[in-house]
Structures are given as structure tokens and as C-alpha cells.
């Protein structure tokens, strides 16, 4: 029997990157997968690729749209992975403080909105994605660093209040996804090579690596309230 046979897995932010690979792996493990994202074309393509049984196009950072998605969702959900969101980089002197404030609000409340909306619907686990890259403060990391350090506490709190639903956080370093390609532009290949040369694992972490961890967190019922680093040792090498 496959690990997720007959289970319903919802991936919020499942049309690219780590979410898409998790949807693919969950499907291969027997799950019925639901993928969401904002861009409808990308979503359709991803759904066809992973043989999703349902899709929904909405902005997960909009509480109204998020709540409506869960309200309309018929039937129970076994596991939810949330990858929607993104980093917010900038030096103090350059930051748009209104935007920074919105971003901070979104980063801190998205897990709360998901937790509340999913309560009563989800019966297995909730997994969120954060990072390890900004654990150490550095120029331009002021906002992302604060969010990175806040996420584990938020997830532990949710795990306590949502028990027996399990809630965990994946903390990724550089992962070779479309997001990384967009952020790095022409410097992508240089960064990949730098990571191959410096990471203890001697290779770049890919979205399939994160997918394997996400499915493990869905299926290992001993895991809750914790943060799981997946960065190939990146946090231990100089930037
Ligand atoms: N890649 C890395 O190195 C890395 C490292 C640490 C942490 N992370 C975090 O991990 C998460 C996933 O990253 P990734 O690299 O897999 O990104 P990605 O390649 O850009 O994929 C993100 C997926 O989420 C969807 N999405 C993004 N914002 C959304 C929103 N507001 N509402 C609904 N769907 C949304 C995207 O589709 P649409 O754009 O069509 O909505 C896409 O399907 C992000 O939160 C990122 O900050 C990434």
C-alpha cells in the first residue's frame, strides 16, 4: 500500500516549485491532490501534470479568499501544505515601511487564518514553509530575519491548540525553484555552483528534496510542533 492511499492532500501554492513537487509525490503515493495558486494558466498546467482532482485559483494571502476556499471545500482534508508567500528583502533605508508592515502582518497571520479555516476540515496535518537563510541577521534581511525567527513559535503554538491535528514547519535554505530563478536572474548558475562548492552535501537542494520531507511530515504521526531544516548545511557556511 502507498503511504497516502486514498487521502486528500491540499497544496496551497501548488502550481510551481516545492508545492508542485509535493503534489506530484503525494499523487505518486496514492493521494488525491488539490492544487491552488493565483495564476490560472499555470495552475491548469500543473493540475494536468500531477493529475490533480481539483484546483482553485485564489490569493492565499487574502484572508477573505482563503476563508472562502475552505468554506466551499466539500469533505474532509487529510493534509495541507502551505507554500504561498515569499521573502521580503531590503535595507532599512530603502524599505517601504507600509509594504513591510503589510508583509509582516501577512507572514504572521497566514498560519493563523489557515489554522482557523481548516479546523474541523483537516484531520491529519498542516505543514508550512519558512527558511533557514535569514536566521543569521545580515544587511537587507531585517524583515525576513524577524519572520524566520517568529515562525517556529507560531507553528508550535498552532500545534498545541490544534491537537490532535499535527502542525509543522519546513525551514528551507536555497531551493532550486522558479522563485530562486526569479530572484537571482542571471546570477542563478553562479549561485548554484557556489553552493555545490561550499555546501556540506556538495549539491544543490531541489524541490524534490523538500517534497520528500513534506510527505514524511504528512505520514509520520509522531511529528508535531517542530521545525525541520532542509538546507544541505547552508546555515553553517559563510554567505
Ligand atoms: N526557493 C527557495 O530557495 C526558498 C527558500 C526558503 C523558503 N522559501 C519559501 O518557500 C515557499 C515556496 O517557494 P518556492 O521556491 O517553491 O516558490 P515558487 O517556485 O515561486 O512557487 C510558489 C507557488 O506558490 C504559488 N503562490 C505564491 N504566492 C501565492 C499566493 N499569495 N497565493 C496563492 N498561491 C501563491 C505560486 O503560484 P502563483 O504565483 O500562480 O500564485 C506557485 O505555485 C515560499 O514561501 C518561499 O518564500 C523558498
Structure description:
With 239 residues, the protein is an alpha/beta fold. Helix content is 45%, strand content 18%. The protein has helices spanning 17-28, 40-50, 63-72, 97-118, 142-162, 178-184, 188-198, 207-219; strands at residues 8-12, 32-37, 54-57, 77-82, 122-131, 166-172, 227-230. The chain has a seven-stranded parallel sheet, with helices on both faces. Bound molecules: NADP nicotinamide-adenine-dinucleotide phosphate (NAP). NADP nicotinamide-adenine-dinucleotide phosphate is lined by residues 13-19, 36-39, 42, 59-61, 83-87, 129, 131, 172, 174-175, 177-180.
Number of domains: 1
Proportion of residues in β-strands: 15-25%
Mean pLDDT: 97
CATH architecture label name: 3-Layer(aba) Sandwich
What is the succession of H and E elements? EHEHEHEHEHEHHHE
List low-confidence stretches. Answer: none
Tell me the major beta sheet: 7 strands, parallel
CATH superfamily: NAD(P)-binding Rossmann-like Domain
CATH class: Alpha Beta
User: Given the helix and strand composition, which structural class is it?
Assistant: alpha/beta
Indicate the CATH topology.
Rossmann fold
Q: What is the helical fraction, as a range of percent?
A: 40-55%
Amino acid at each position: 500500500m502507498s503511504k497516502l492511499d486514498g487521502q486528500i492532500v491540499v497544496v496551497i501554492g501548488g502550481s510551481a516549485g516545492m508545492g508542485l513537487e509535493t503534489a506530484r509525490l503525494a499523487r505518486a503515493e496514492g493521494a488525491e491532490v488539490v492544487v491552488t495558486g493565483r495564476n490560472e494558466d499555470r495552475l491548469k498546467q500543473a493540475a494536468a501534470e500531477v493529475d490533480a482532482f481539483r484546483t482553485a485559483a485564489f490569493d492565499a494571502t487574502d484572508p477573505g479568499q482563503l476563508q472562502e476556499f475552505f468554506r466551499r471545500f466539500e469533505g474532509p482534508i487529510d493534509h495541507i501544505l502551505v507554500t504561498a508567500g515569499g521573502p521580503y528583502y531590503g535595507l532599512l533605508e530603502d524599505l517601504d515601511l507600509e509594504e513591510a508592515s503589510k508583509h509582516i502582518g501577512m507572514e504572521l497571520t497566514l498560519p493563523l487564518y489557515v489554522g482557523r479555516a481548516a479546523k474541523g476540515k483537516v484531520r491529519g496535518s498542516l505543514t508550512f514553509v519558512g527558511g533557514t537563510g535569514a536566521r543569521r541577521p545580515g544587511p537587507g534581511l531585517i524583515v525576513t530575519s524577524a519572520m524566520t525567527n517568529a515562525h517556529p513559535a507560531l507553528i508550535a503554538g498552532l500545534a498545541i491548540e490544534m491537537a490532535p491535528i499535527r502542525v509543522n514547519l519546513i525551514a528551507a535554505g536555497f531551493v532550486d525553484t522558479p522563485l530562486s530563478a526569479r530572484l537571482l536572474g542571471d546570477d542563478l548558475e553562479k549561485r548554484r555552483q557556489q553552493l555545490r562548492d561550499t555546501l556540506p552535501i556538495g549539491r544543490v537542494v531541489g524541490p524534490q528534496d523538500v517534497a520528500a520531507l513534506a510527505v514524511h511530515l504528512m505520514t509520520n504521526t509522531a511529528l508535531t510542533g517542530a521545525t525541520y531544516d532542509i538546507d544541505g548545511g547552508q546555515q553553517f557556511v559563510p554567505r
